[in-house]
Write a structure and sequence with these properties.
The complex is a heterodimer. Chain A is an all-alpha fold. Chain A has helices spanning 7-16, 18-31, 35-64, 85-93, 96-127, 133-142, 148-161, 168-176, 180-190, 194-202, 207-215, 220-236, 239-244, 253-261, 268-288, 290-299. Chain A contains 16 helices and no strands. By secondary structure, chain B is an all-alpha fold. A two-stranded antiparallel ribbon of chain B has the order 1-2. Chain B is flat and about 70 Å long. The two termini of chain B are 17 Å apart. The chains are: A mainly alpha, B mainly alpha.
């Protein structure tokens, strides 16, 4: 049974069928669940969770502490006074609003473009028959394993040659050249009942109309997952924007963070204030759309 | 959507006369290529063209602003006799060998823990998964501050419990350790999530049967849990190995490959040659090596997932 189960199926079982897990728990509780066991497990989970969250707490502490305080001698785990001076300094010294804007613009365009072309391609690989389909599909999947660092010199030359070096498009187009969503989309489209598409066909709709008006409305969860994962990938991307951007006004937040650190005497309080600004949107997104995030990660299961 | 089969159904063709069928098939073929085209054009231009270009570059030497010179295999020859390349490769392997097992074991352990009866399970899960959404750069910055050598928090805590400060920035081994810790922190949640998904697909009856046979908790874990999360383990192994071979943001931000070259890995060394020293041909050659290693892993995965499809 184990050999015939794919990771996607496992993920499905996990995400959609919490019932099974609930059953295990009920049974376990009835049988050998002692109060002591629960106490121990809670204790361990608490310790691990605190250890994992602590660095994020420390980011907050440093961001809201008076300058240099965390590096003074003596162990201090919270700020003596809460201050906003680090944020004021960041806004004063570097173009935070520009960087935030760049991250948003690049993130939104990369995401819209990637999700759209991935959905189209996923539909083709799932529902349309064409020569060379399987070979191209495998080739597309293989590209997911190409590390940007392996081809970055050539990519840099290409982008320079195309005249888009140091522009939004120099970041966006290579960023959108992703096969990541194709597999996910294909899996989803294969699961759509033939009858729905057949019925639209009989009504005389073309493939593109079927795709836009029949298939896409059925795929909201898929689109949500793809959107969140792509947006997060683009938002956090570092290596490529570092290479493709040279004008400080066009930096994205991660590059801006590095820029702030590379100043002659790094002000770590200010850096943490900017780090907080840069991670907050994704943390909020994660908390609001947690279910989709988790689902997306688990489902991106098979590559 | 609960059970997606990987089997193709293809398009449904309604019965038509033969000639009409042929045109229909041709039309479907054109539509198919048309649908795939935008994605394929982007990938061809920004991935396939650069791969071929990287290969060509790796046979060239670029000197300043002059024209590149064809040097054949010279870059690869330099690579073989370059101690920093071997050091970087070795450190990439060490990084992988240390972080991947910890991520797998830690992920499985946490998944088992958080799959059991526990108050506020959701809160614990969220907390442990959260680092996954933090960028490598921000994580690196946080780590820089925590591992700061003079009066950083980690050293202060070590001092408080009576230990000496550690040279996180001045000594090679501790520097590497600090990067590994940051990487594990960043990736543990992903491993836990995938394992959690794997665990929840295991039928409770199996545990029941094992208990009736008198299996202890440990025996149940060894003989039921571990084998049955095999597909998750396999998938995570591939993902973790590839991520480890490509670790860049953390090292770039935390140590820049230093002190000396003691945290240099293949991708940071490729970046250094390509963009800092500006030996682009040499940087491209290192890139080709990274690509070959990555392709080997991709190939293994493809082979295995194909057998899995056939088994279905």
């Amino acid at each position: 049974m184990a050999e015939t189960t794919t990771v996607v199926q496992i993920a499905d079982a996990a995400l959609l069928g919490e019932k099974g897990a609930a059953r295990v728990q009920r049974r376990r509780r009835r049988q050998s669940q002692t109060r002591k066991g629960i106490v121990w497990r809670t204790l361990i989970a608490t310790v691990v969770a605190i250890a994992v969250i602590f660095p994020l707490y420390w980011m907050l502490v440093v961001a809201f502490s008076p300058r240099g305080e965390v590096f003074e001698p003596g162990l201090r785990l919270w700020p003596s006074t809460l201050t906003l001076e680090n944020f004021a300094k960041v806004f004063d010294r570097v173009p935070v609003i520009d960087w935030l804007g760049n991250s948003v613009v690049i993130g939104v365009i990369v995401t819209a473009l990637t999700v759209f072309v991935n959905l189209l391609a996923g539909y083709a690989f799932a529902r349309l028959r064409f020569g060379g389909r399987n070979a191209v599909f495998i080739l597309a999947l293989a590209t997911m394993m190409i590390p940007v660092q392996a081809i970055m010199v050539a990519q840099f030359k290409l982008v320079s040659g195309l005249g888009i070096y140091g522009t939004y498009w120099g970041v966006i187009l290579p960023g959108a050249a992703a096969a990541f969503g194709i597999f996910l989309a294909r899996q989803f489209f294969i699961g759509i009942p033939d009858e729905i598409i057949e019925a639209a066909r009989i009504d005389g709709a073309g493939h593109f109309r079927i795709f836009l008006q029949v298939v896409l409305p059925l795929c909201k969860p898929l689109i949500a997952v793809l959107t969140l994962l792509t947006l997060m990938g683009s938002w956090n991307d570092f290596a490529w924007p570092l290479i493709a951007l040279n004008d400080n006004a066009l930096f994205t937040l991660p590059i801006g963070l590095l820029y702030l650190k590379n100043q002659t005497s790094p002000d770590y309080n200010a850096i943490m204030a900017l780090a907080l600004i840069s991670v907050l949107p994704m943390v909020l997104l994660f908390i609001f759309f947690q279910r989709y995030f988790v689902q997306g990660f688990a489902r991106s299961g098979i590559k | 959507m609960t059970s997606v089969s990987t089997r193709d159904r293809g398009a449904v063709a309604s019965p038509r006369p033969r000639a009409g069928q042929r045109t229909a098939r041709l039309r479907e073929s054109l539509v198919g290529w048309g649908f795939a085209a935008p994605n394929l054009v982007l990938m061809s231009l920004f991935l396939f063209v650069p791969i071929i270009w990287a290969l060509i570059l790796s046979f060239q030497e670029t000197k300043g602003f002059g024209d590149p010179e064809w040097v054949g295999l010279e870059n690869y020859g330099t690579l073989v006799s370059d101690p920093v390349f071997w050091q970087s490769l070795g450190q990439t392997i060490i990084f992988t060998l240390v972080t991947v097992p910890i991520e797998l074991l830690g992920g499985l352990g946490l998944a088992v823990l958080l799959n059991s009866v526990l108050p506020a399970r959701g809160v614990f899960r969220t907390a442990i998964v959260l680092p996954m959404v933090i960028s490598g750069v921000a994580s690196g910055m946080i780590a820089v501050i925590m591992f700061y050598e003079s009066n950083g928090l980690v050293n202060k805590i070590l001092n408080a419990i009576g230990l000496d400060s550690v040279g996180w920035q001045s000594e090679g081994a501790p520097a590497m350790m600090s990067v590994m810790i940051a990487a594990i922190w960043l990736r543990l949640g992903f491993n836990m999530i995938i394992y959690l998904a794997g665990l929840q697909s295991i039928s409770p009856e199996l545990y029941e049967a094992a208990r009736i046979d008198g299996a202890s908790r440990w025996q149940q874990f060894r003989s039921v849990t571990v084998p049955l999360v095999g597909p998750s383990t396999f998938f995570l192994l591939i993902m973790n190995v590839i991520a480890s071979f490509q670790v860049f943001d953390l090292i770039f931000v935390m140590t820049g490959g230093g002190p000396g070259n003691s945290t240099s890995v293949l991708v940071t060394y490729a970046y250094r040659n390509g963009f800092q020293i500006r030996e682009q041909g040499y940087g491209a050659a290192i890139g080709i090596v990274i690509l070959i290693i990555t392709l080997i892993f991709t190939f293994i995965q493809w082979k295995t997932s194909r057998t899995r499809d056939l088994a279905e």
